[in-house]
Amino acid sequence: MASTSIESFYSEDIDSTTDLPQKQKQVLKACLELFAAKGFEATTTADIADKAGVSQGTVYKRFKTKEQLLQAVVHPLFSKTIPRAAQEFADDISRFEYSSLADFLKPTLKNRLKFATENKQILKILFMQAVNDPQLLAELIAPVKDVLTTTIPKVIDNLKQQHLLVDWETGRILEYVLSIGAGFGAQMILFDRQFDIDQVIDQAVEFLVKGLSPEK
């Protein structure tokens, strides 16, 4: 499965924006990288200017405060980048035929936990912004909800039709799978816990397969 980084998608999204001068695009991309690496509070104007290859005056030429700059950075993440990342995930899930429940769970969980690990700091920024802004929260949830309510249920229904999955209500099965993946993901992103991803996934898949396999 593919797992393009949020930063890569974001860079493409900013470059495709037609209403921003090139130097301001450089500023936004530099801000995202620095906010992710150092944190919003620890990042200085000098850091941003140096990373973007512009003067310090250019940093705030369009955005007058650091808070306005943060809003300018995160808005494309919510409106463009996260939907693209969610669509990439949905397309990958739909591309494969699964011959067992484990064949679906193992690569899917591994893909999402790796994505969470590799994009941890940016995802943390997104969550912190979304908590305080209902509109941003809705933008964050929408593309994820689409995957959860369309793409994954189709796979679950297909596995049930093949008698590879217990014949329970699809939403119930989805809740059990999500509780495992989201639990580990939240610990990685919000609490900086370190896991052996392969070991965690093997144990999670073993647990889910035992609980969700049809009786023989």
Mean pLDDT: 90
Element pattern in H and E: HHHHHHHHHH
Annotation field: number of helices: 10
Q: How many strands, which pairing sense, and closed or not: the largest β-sheet?
A: none
Q: Hey, roughly how much beta strand do the residues contain?
A: under 5%
Distance between the termini: 31 Å
Low-confidence stretches: none
The structure class reads mainly alpha
- Estimated radius of gyration: 20 Å
**How many E strands?**
0
Helix content: over 70%
Global morphology = elongated
Polypeptide structure, described:
Helix content is 76%, strand content 0%. The chain is an all-alpha fold and 216 residues long. α2 (22-38) crosses α3, α2 packs across α7 and α7 packs across α8. The model has no long low-confidence stretch (mean pLDDT 90).
